[in-house]
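Q: I'm writing up a methods section and want to include an example of the input and output format. Could you take the sequence below and give the corresponding predicted structure tokens, formatted cleanly so I can copy it straight into the document?
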Amino acid sequence: MSPRRGEYVNRSTSTVAGYLAEWVEAHASTVKPKTLAGYRHDIDHYIVPRIGRMRLQALRPAVISKLYRDLAEHGGQDGQPLAATTVSHIHRTLRKALADAVQVDQILAINPAARSKRPRSHAAEPTQVWSAEQLDAFLTAARSHRLFAFYRLAAYTGALLYLRWHAIDLDAAEITFGGSTAVIRGQRVEGTTKGGRSRTVSIDGETAAILREHRRQQAAERLSAGSAWNDSGGLVFTNRWGEPLYPDTVSALMTKLINAHNRSTTPSAAPLPHARLHDLRHLHATTLLLAGVPVHVVAARLGHADPAVTLRVYSHVLREHAAGVGDIFAQAVKASVSKSAGQTGKDDQ
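A: Here is the clean output for your methods example:
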């Protein structure tokens, strides 16, 4: 019984480890493979080794708060502090599991994770690793590679490895994204987008031309490979034998292209900083926002279901963009007053 809420629950001998094992198996067919892998990793590596033997109904907010604090202080490799983002992910997993223990299985009266406290942390704002000029330098270095179109799309739309030719309308200059790619236990796994919804974004004429050339190149590779070609369901980006690409492949290639560019520049030229593939997505978003593109348009392009997510992630960009808004307003008022005064002078003549 919960004295505070006056609710009864049957006494259970289930341990935290036992319940979480049943819970994660119950979700195996209802969530994306990457999400399921995240649940299992949090449970197996962080939760069960520390509180797995406890009786589930004995869990209290203070116990879970201590778990988070211990993880934050020395829950990482070799006793190092665990990243705040990882602790937050563990919290979301445990909170969801215990919410089901309350609402679905009805073996808990309240969710102790919902009342627990995590160590205070400050969410890191995405940094803009490259400028637009540095992006252009990278794309120039990548232009001769067979996967140049991949990096062009990654920078200009955020497209990645799930994309199929049937989702591209080159005449309308539009691309529809309806899935994602991840690697789970060494296997390439495809699934839906994070929000489960597709989105259509526009592309510029030059990018459309680059994709046409990439399609011609892929057709030539298919002809050359003959019977060795693997039909991958119309994937836009494959290896030379038609096999799907892994995320690590294009990430490692990006590093090689950056290093090759830096070796080819003169000693007096500033080298390109190291950048991750995901940094191209942030560069895309920040460039659009600083150009004055409305937040809801950028959110739709990134696949954010709620523009509030875009506002939160890129609030630093919007603050920078808003720095001169006061002057713009003042100038607009002065211009309006001057125009009105000039018109009045003409009327008096």
